[in-house]
Amino acid sequence: MKAQPAAAESSGANAAAGLVVRPVQRQDAALLIALCQEHIEQRALERRPYGPPRSDALELLEVLFEPPYAAWAWIAEVDGQAVGYASATAGFSMLERAYCLHLDDPYLRAPWRDRGIEVELFRQAREAAQRFGCLNLQCQSPLWSEAARQVDAPLRAVRMDAVRYVVRMEEPAAA
Fold first, then answer.
1. What percent of the chain stands above pLDDT 70?
2. Predicted confidence (pLDDT) per residue in 79-96, tens digit
3. The dihedral sign for the CA sequence 169, 145, 143, 86
4. How far is 141 from 19, CA to CA, in rounded Å?
5. In terms of CB atoms within 10 Å, which of 11, 41, 69, 121 comes out highest?
6. What pTM value is reported for the model?
7. Taking a C-beta distance cutoff of 8 angstroms, is the pair 85, 121 a contact?
8. How confident is the prediction along the chain (175 residues), in pLDDT tens digits per residue?
9. Other C-beta atoms within 10 Å of 36: how many?
């Protein structure tokens, strides 16, 4: 998989005026971490099974900025102000014998939700998956996510209900 593309201004009819969605750069690390922390706090109950985030950003910086790249992220800005982000990781399906891109649930600060920005973040991830030659883009979002319902309709995504099991590695294995 390749590095990230250049920034793109939104041309979506519903998107906020002055919207730019751009790839995260190394100098954005503190901003991305702050946005991730807001996202975690907003989803505290849902995130509980995953455990706390790592205290340092070493792994985050490695996957985003050092080859072989394994993650990509985009920052949404309106008039130069960061309003949200989306991130995706490289995946592979043995059954399809192909790469896929896994998109995490995008995050937008409350005043910027429902303005079409989610769709633009999704579009950036979809274009990245196409550039990388991925067979598909896969998204996971909570069942109750309004943003996910708004994003998948215009892009004709197929909803696949599933259960995700999380096994935390710091817990001892069951005998």
1. 79
2. 999 999 999 999 999 999
3. negative
4. 23
5. 121
6. 0.81
7. yes
8. 555 545 555 544 456 789 999 999 999 999 999 999 999 998 888 878 888 888 899 999 999 999 999 999 999 999 999 999 999 999 999 999 999 999 998 999 999 998 989 989 999 999 999 999 999 999 876 665 655 555 555 556 677 777 777 778 876 766 6
9. 18
| Both tokens assigned to 125 | 């991830």
Both structure tokens of 48: 């509980």
